[in-house]
Recover the amino acids of this structure.
């Protein structure tokens, strides 16, 4: 078996920034490879809510066709401006804004956000970011084989609601032993 492919240069840069800043919330590599693969199927505009140090955006840009736009919103001003500088030549639009402002740039072919943020954001506002065929990708779930899904002994209502929403065809993908990602495509 051959070694997994090298990390894209953009991703390495973003991971270095995470390391340098002690930022521990960055997307993991298993999720990143899935993001790049999904982004490769997209056209139009791809959005990320919560840039962090740019790891997710770097994966999305690395996988997406050249003529797609990648836009990412970060609330923390210092973080947003550091990532803006880092990606200034890389065709990634970083905005210092609440994710809700992303709506002005939609609809999106793919929206990526973490479960923690999705739990705080009004769900219908997230749904409104995509039209038919648009994909919402939520990461940072704890894998669970039961239904309803459980997390720390309680029903994982966020995951349950996304998977049960009949406006979407959805799947919960276990990308590593300890983490899963929901992919929901609007019908
Ligand atoms: C889990 S991290 C994101 C990691 C990033 N997506 C990645 O792939 O590495 C969540 C980020 O969302 C940012 N954030 C929190 N609330 C936000 C909001 N309302 N709008 C935009 N960003 C927000 C936080 O500052 C934090 O950097």
């Amino acid at each position: 078996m051959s070694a997994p492919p090298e990390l894209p240069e953009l991703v390495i840069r973003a991971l270095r920034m995470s390391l340098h800043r002690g930022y521990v919330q960055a997307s993991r590599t298993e999720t990143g490879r899935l993001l790049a693969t999904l982004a490769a199927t997209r056209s139009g505009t791809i959005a990320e809510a919560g840039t962090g140090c740019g790891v997710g955006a770097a994966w999305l840009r690395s996988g997406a066709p050249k003529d797609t736009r990648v836009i990412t919103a970060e609330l923390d001003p210092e973080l947003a401006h550091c990532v803006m500088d880092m990606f200034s030549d890389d065709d990634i639009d970083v905005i210092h804004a609440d994710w809700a402002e992303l709506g002005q740039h939609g609809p999106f072919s793919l929206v990526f956000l973490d479960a923690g943020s999705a739990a705080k954001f009004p769900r219908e506002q997230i749904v409104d970011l995509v039209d038919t065929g648009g994909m919402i990708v939520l990461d940072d779930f704890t894998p669970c084989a039961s239904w309803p899904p459980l997390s720390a002994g309680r029903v994982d209502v966020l995951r349950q609601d996304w998977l049960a929403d009949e406006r979407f065809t959805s799947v919960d993908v276990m990308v590593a032993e300890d983490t899963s990602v929901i992919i929901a495509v609007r019908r």
